[in-house]
Design a protein that fits this description.
It is a single chain. It contains 2 helices and 3 strands. Strand 2 (37-44) and strand 3 (50-57) form a beta hairpin. It is an alpha+beta fold.
Amino acid sequence: MEQESRVNNPKPWIAQLFCRHHGEWFGRQEPYFNLSGETQYKVCTKCGKKLDERFIPNFDGS
């Protein structure tokens, strides 16, 4: 629960500057989604800073 609230309410930028980041990948809930894949974001669970972003394509396997 603590990590979930930190992602939604990040610390101020000065606290993010001195944080030793520990990131986890999260998917954002959006009203419209991309049919060709999903965008995931790596967010620090301690301070809430967005560290990285990646696109995961959907493969239909045929």
